[in-house]
Write a structure and sequence with these properties.
About 30% of the residues lie in helices and about 25% in strands. It has 17 helices and 24 strands. The strands form 6 sheets. Strands 6-9-10-3-11-12 form a 6-stranded mixed sheet, sandwiched between helices. Strands 18-21-22-15-23-24 form a 6-stranded mixed sheet, with helices on both faces. Bound molecules: adenosine-5'-triphosphate (ATP) and magnesium ion.
């Protein structure tokens, strides 16, 4: 008898979207079950139903053969089901321990028992090899560590089944390896894991069985050992094998962005960037590789006007870029696909259309003598929704009604439709399915063919190698190497530079 059975689950959202259609889904106790499918296929919805966050319109859930009603996450947790969300949901101002114990603090004479709390958190962390400091403030922690906090929080509730919704989308390869060790440990200790991910390589590496969803339905479930990556991709997108992309030839033009001796010291006095210098030319993609937390994110944020550098100069088209607000920087032809898209990219309660014009609503034709023009806005939004294949019923729906991947597309559409001189792309394919990732690669190449200079930061080395015309590697705030022909390098070799085990002497003057 399966551990979890979901039978005939149908879910129609109030806006009429049928996110799940007659879904039958089974999970065995003790397995790692991967749930895959395109953006908007209905994976998160199905798991939210299992976790009691959404009510299905029809269908039944059984646990070990017994029909259950799951009306809220409290019900789910009581039944042994926990979930770590696609968008982490911790309270940044609270400490790790406070977040973990939110709502379930052990009370002694009605008071919060601080030492007992810290003790519990420490022992859980130790048991599952999840190293964290219970007294750290969540806001100060990198994403990988925040996720550990979420996992411990779920474990602390004493669940048997843990649902992880795209847990690796925000992680570096190293953090992903750590997470996988944790997942294996969980299973060894008798837990069951459902894992949603778009990375088929990961699915192959970690899962026991795979279920594929498409357009709200289950395509099938099969043992991982019997599935090839090509076959899975074909199941997901409903056609045979993806065409292999050919790199269009580069036409490198004049220098667009020149960064000279850029340094950045953060509020805590730590040197985040150390005299970083490089150029990006028109018609070229400069990739930046590095283990997360080595200065790449701050570099992009400085270039986008979101942070002020401590020292150094930035030149755009031969002119010194003044310190400026993001809006001013954008008006100079710089587009930015931010890494933390939920914080810097979208306004969740606003509609898709409003998000699409967020940076240009004050321009014609969207605004005329101070009045917004709804017709023009709607037509423009509809065009972008079509061009970027954003799966949404209507431009008026709020951004929060979109699936994770479709939310990404809204930001991509806004930024890539600007025809920028310089495009700053931070982790542009994070959270995207196979097809959408391919589409983004096309868009980046298109910008490059249009003569834009593209700066690409990605945690996905194979993506960097295939897209970049030149590849820089950052370690500890410095650029330790710039390679002219990344396609000739192996991931392992780049890894040595990323870890700071090797560096290139940079005496050669760069550029043409
Ligand atoms: N709260 C909501 N209100 C209305 N529609 C929604 C809501 N949440 C999701 N949807 C829609 O339901 C469909 C399935 O979304 P879901 O989030 O389950 O997809 P997903 O498979 O998790 O995709 P992704 O890989 O992009 O995260 C999508 O068309 C989405 O727009
Ligand atoms: Mg999702």
């Amino acid at each position: 008898m399966p551990f979890i059975e979901m039978r005939g689950i149908t879910k129609v959202y109030p806006n009429g979207v049928m996110a799940n259609h007659q879904v039958n889904f089974e999970v065995e106790a003790g397995e790692i079950h991967a749930l895959v499918g395109e953006n908007g296929a209905g994976k998160t919805t199905l798991m939210k139903i299992l976790y009691g966050m959404e009510r299905p319109n029809a269908g039944e859930i059984r646990i070990r053969g017994v029909p259950v009603q799951i009306r809220s996450p409290f019900d789910a947790i009581r039944l042994g089901i926990g979930m770590v969300h696609q968008n982490l949901m911790l309270i940044p101002e609270f400490t790790v321990a406070e977040n973990i114990l939110l709502g379930v603090e052990p009370h002694r004479w009605g008071l919060w028992d601080r030492s007992a709390t810290l003790q519990t958190v420490r022992s859980l962390a130790e048991r599952y090899g999840l190293s964290i400091d219970p007294e750290a403030r969540v806001a100060d922690l990198p994403v990988g560590v925040r996720q550990r906090v979420e996992i411990i929080k779920v474990l602390h509730r004493g669940v048997d089944l843990i649902i992880l919704d795209e847990p690796t989308a925000l992680l570096t390869p190293q953090e992903t390896q750590e997470l996988f060790r944790t997942i294996r440990e969980l299973v060894k200790q008798g837990k069951t894991v459902i894992l949603i991910t778009h990375k088929l390589r990961e699915v192959k590496a970690i899962s026991d069985r795979i279920t594929v969803m498409r357009h709200g339905r289950i395509v099938g479930t099969l043992p991982t050992a019997e599935a090839s990556e090509e076959e899975l991709a074909a199941w997901m997108i409903g056609r045979r094998a993806l065409p292999t992309l050919k790199r269009p030839p580069a036409r490198r033009g004049p220098c667009i962005l020149r960064v000279e001796n850029l340094s950045y010291i953060d509020e805590g006095g730590r040197a985040i960037l150390r005299e970083v210098s490089f150029e990006v030319h028109s018609g070229e993609i400069l990739g930046i590789a590095g283990v997360e937390g080595n200065g790449q994110s701050e570099l992009v944020e400085i270039l986008a006007g979101l942070r002020q550098p401590t020292a150094g100069e930035i030149w755009l088209d031969g002119e010194r870029l003044p310190a400026g607000t993001p809006r001013r920087i954008r008006s100079m032809g710089i587009a930015h696909i931010p890494e933390d898209r939920l914080r810097n990219g979208v306004a969740l309660p606003l509609s898709i259309a409003e998000n699409l014009i967020a940076d240009r609503y004050f321009e014609a034709p969207f605004s005329r003598s101070g009045w917004l023009n709804p017709g023009a806005i709607r037509r423009y939004a509809e065009d972008l929704i079509r061009a970027f294949d954003i799966r949404a019923p209507d431009p008026e729906v709020p951004a929060e009604a979109l699936s994770g991947g479709n939310l990404q597309r809204v930001i991509l559409a806004r930024e890539l439709s600007r025809r920028p001189r310089l495009l700053l792309a931070a982790q542009p394919t994070r959270g995207l399915d196979v097809g959408a990732t391919e589409a983004v690669h096309h868009f980046l190449w298109e910008q490059r063919s249009n003569g834009a200079a593209v700066l690409l930061v990605s945690a996905d080395l194979s993506e960097l190698i295939s897209l970049s015309d030149r590849l820089a590697v950052m370690h500890d705030g410095e650029i330790v190497a710039i390679f002219p022909e990344p396609q000739r390098l192996s991931e392992e070799e780049i890894g040595l530079y990323m870890l700071g085990l090797r560096r290139q002497p940079l005496e050669r003057e760069e550029g043409s």
